[in-house]
Amino acid sequence: MLEPVKFSTYHGGSREEGLLDFSASLNPYPPEWLDEMFERSKEISDRYPYYEKLEEGLAELIGAPLTLTAGITEALYLIGILALRGRRVIIPRHTYGEYERVARIFGAEVVKAPNESERLAELVERNSVAFFCNPNNPDGRFYRIKELKPLLDAIEEKKALLILDEAFIDFVKNAESPEGENVVKLRTFTKSYGLPGIRVGYVLGFKEAFRSVRMPWSMGLTGVALLELLLRDGFEHLRRTMPLIWREKERIEKALGVKSDANFFIKCVGNAGEFVEALKMQGILVRDCESFGLPEYVRFSVRKPEENDKLIDAFRGLEVKF
Predict the structure, then answer these.
(1) pTM of the full structure
(2) Closest to 83 measured CA to CA, from 2, 203, 195
(3) What's the CATH number for 20-29+237-319?
(4) 98-104 LR contacts (CB < 8 Å, sep 24+)
(5) How far apart are the C-alpha atoms of 173 and 142, rounded to whole Å?
(6) Domain 34-233 has CATH 3.30.300.30
(7) What confidence tens digit (pLDDT) does each residue in 200-249 have?
(8) Is 93 exposed, middle or buried (0-12, 13-18, 19+ CB in 10 A)?
């Protein structure tokens, strides 16, 4: 008899029509070639999605060998197949919940610690696996290589494995990313192109291992069309839109007294559940952080200026009540 894994998580993103959605942390500016992408996916929808040549093109653009996956989520489950069974898995206490879910599905021993490089490094053992989200979700803090050094040193010394989730790194100004033989980096276009329904991401590190267990045709042809146009675009869309997001991020920081290195924030509001419902009454959706172990906080993203104005006004109005 099959038994369900007793662990669930909520990832944000509106399930109700008519709400201004700040709960999913995405680029609010869609690519100019979005319509062309859907037309292209229709043209090629009568064939299987092979993408080896696109993989080569993206590797050339990125400057490193990589493995394409259906977003970071597929990559996490591939890690489960390759590295988690029977392992000690170290996970920061307040971070993305899917790390723990995947670890438990594959029967790993889960150990939690504060989201601090030194504290995590103390728990690293030989052949263990550590997860680290950078910038972290939900608080948006980005850890520079110097700050990660204790953890990186422990991973190298103990011949452990570091899974570095860089889903939001495109939103960080002057971002830097560590290298290492035992470091696997997960990245996605879901966030930075504002297209969460099109599952395209990639893994840096252990290319042959990931390709050996990757499911055939997992991305679908809309993902293939996205990659074709992304390669033609050469990340120009990101160069054009990120400064717009950074400008609005700074404005929200000043208006609401919050701070983040990414495109989203958390804020303590007391009763987060009631706060979320109160904002819904004003047509605005934010995410409560209960699944992150922070029940008094809400998370909200950066959107376009006129949308951010509505969020700021709503927060100021509710702060008197909460």
Answers:
(1) 0.92
(2) 203
(3) 3.90.1150.10
(4) 98/9, 98/11, 98/73, 99/131, 99/133, 99/163, 99/165, 100/7, 101/5, 101/7, 101/8, 101/9, 102/76, 102/77, 104/5, 104/7
(5) 10
(6) no
(7) 999 999 999 999 999 888 889 999 999 999 999 999 999 999 999 999 99
(8) middle
